[in-house]
Amino acid sequence: MPFIKINAEEAIEMLNDPSIITLWLKEGKINPKEADLLDYAAKKDYEQIRSLITENFGTDAEDAFERLSKFLETQSSVSWVLFSHTTQFIPFKEINPLIGYIPREARAFIQETNEEMIEEGELGD
Amino acid sequence: MTEADKDLDDAKNDDVEECERFVIDAEALRDLSAVIAAQRFLDAGNCYESKGNRKKAAQYLTLAGHFFAESGDINKCADCYGKAAIRHILNDDLEAAKIIVERGIELGFDTFLFRMAKERVEATVEEEIRLELPEEEVTHPKLSISLLADSLELDPELLKIGGQEEFHSQVNLFQIDELDSLSAGPSDLLAHLKEARNSSRAKLLRSKVSNESLEPLESESPFALKTTLLTPEEQISDTEFIPISSFLAGDIQTSLATNQLESEPDQEEPLLDIESFESIQESSGGSKDTSLEAVDFSPLSKETQISSLDQEDVAQEGAAISDIKISSVVASGDSSKIDAVVPLSEPETIEIPVIDIEQAPTDIQEVLKNIIHEDEEFYADGSPTASGLNYLSTSTFENKKGVPIKNAELLDIIPFEWQVISVSAPGLKLISRETIEDQGVLYRWQKPLLEPNEKVQVKYILRRRIERSILSRKGRKVALITTYHNIDWSNPDKFKTVTYFANTASESFDEVFIEDIIPPEVIVVSSSTISSLSSMRFPTENSTAYRWSKTPFEKSEEIEITYRFRKKQSSRWFTRFITLPNQNSLRIEKIAQPMLVEGIGEVYYILYRISSTRAIKLQLQDKIPADFNVHTVFPSWIRPQTVIYSGWSILSWSIELDPGVELTFLIHIEGPKVFFPTEPVLKIKNLKIDSREIKKKKELVKIDFRQYFPNIRGTAGRVK
Predict the structure, then answer these.
(1) What's chain B's average pLDDT?
(2) ipTM score here?
(3) Which residue in B38, B93, B439, B697 could disulfide with B68, CB within 3.0 to 4.6 Å?
(4) Which residues of chain B does A32 touch, with a Cβ-Cβ cutoff of 8 Å?
């Protein structure tokens, strides 16, 4: 099973434009843990990559780290395919943020602000 | 099984699996990395906590602590130990808590959470020791008149009636409709309790409750809880609520001695000096008037047109009045309880000192200042103060006619739920205070001559009390007593109340249930009792209810419950409407809600909502204390960048907004202390703020974040 639903072409594109990671995340194409890994990969933060891979890839961690490092160095499609097809995806489950939440009727400070914004420099700067 | 039930079961299984997965991860990693294993155990502990499984939460938090210690992260270890110890105590596993705390002390832990846990363990151990003492060695503090007086905030002299200690209360006696339900357990009885409290059919009787633990009990002792006289063999009428008097007529001698506690219902009390106000109110009981909701009232004046004045009588006194307006915000919605009267003859009055705001002692002035400027808390950056706990109620009496009014009176009823902190009534004389059954305390003010267009005002500074309902059952008979207890606000960090209840009847009760409604301004930090009571805590929408039960409640048995409070923090709601160049407008909303959880740490939910009429890129920044953790971000793709700066974590989001689409996201943060969420910062490239208009107010609002996330599994169905 491929580690991630990102093909080699997209992975290379990601290295050039990391902002695409947020878009994939928003679309649900990758999960937040995978996004973290790709973030670190795009920044070539090997320390964080190793930590995340160790945490999530179990006994395959060392191999996975080497393969990903190889891809980052060479930006070759083959390296990506090798990496993404020989490791398992990182499980992630969205936590319901409202577990334990209690709606309440209570006193609240309410502040309303009306603002106007202008182009910087318009006032003679 | 319905589809919804299946979904619910699936959800429960998923929830359990989620926690187990953390445990499996942690177990697998424990030999590889102590840091990661510790984090996983912590996740498992938090997960079980969120599922309500305190035992497992304590177990895994302890393990997390061990692994953090192994990895050298002492502070995290201390926090985990602290959390674990508290959960062990809550789980009645004091031994485990003691072991953890002792180990923490050995390791020299000194974090906030650990200190809190340590104090809690020490307090619980002390309590255990007290309980283990032989009965004859237990010196109950309530056996002293002065201590009883202290706890009730009464003048000790008022309690001495014929050698006994007494205080007032009111009793509802009623017979439950469905007698079978009596065997159905506490929940049914409590439902009846609610019903009884809200029912207008409840009959009330003013009576006395004696603290007779000093004296041998006499079978004919005049105690309201003598519902035990109602044996099951007695004839029971068909009425739902049975006045106690119908059973006890002739048995109860309300032989009250000569002080103001002894007045018959509606009988005028002799006057006291201002310091004694509280004694009167504390000693006055009353059932909750159904027209009075225990919610915040708006400090706005309500005007009541009085048209029933007898003008002929007035004319005889030489004053001509055709129309008097009088207002009262404290009185109940029943305007007939408020009246403006012009007495036919000069009443006999006694002057008493009434505090004027300007002349008030410094501490009272401070209280008044806090009312006026309570939103100063808005900018405060330290511990919460006593401000915001007070309510100001103003009654105004204005002569709008062109003729003077002689001996005009202003009547206000302060419901029993409110404690009067101070009163200001410049130019007015307090003629009397009377306890009005079902209503509260009636204040009667007089102005000898009210000139045309002259206005007089009475200002009351009020704070809420704890409202307690005590339901006692003997066989098929149930007695309901409602009492009100002041909270000791003198130390802003340690508000507390010690409440006391004793069975002085000659027989035991089958069971007794106590429900305390905690004022919405405070949060209970701890609740404890030396009696063997079982307790439950119920969060309500604007308050918290504590229920205690004892089965059976033996004769001469006593219940003492101590609450410790702290002030509840207000929610904060910021809305920014921003006009941008090119006919673009932006709306940003931030709602920060403290979660008011008991025990350890502080939890806040912060919701952000942003929308724009045109596509725009912006950066949103907000700050939380650096020692707070972001527990959840939802949806997860909108994770912030975090930078620690000068004691704060600066959270920053780069956002691209589509026109007309509202972006809503939520963060859930946890930390060790209270903080005051502030307005978020907005940065848009090449734009700066030109002008700004700010409006501030403090209001009672209902905040329910679930409505913004209707599609989250497990919450959608609960959105109202």
Answers:
(1) 62
(2) 0.71
(3) B38
(4) 636-637, 639
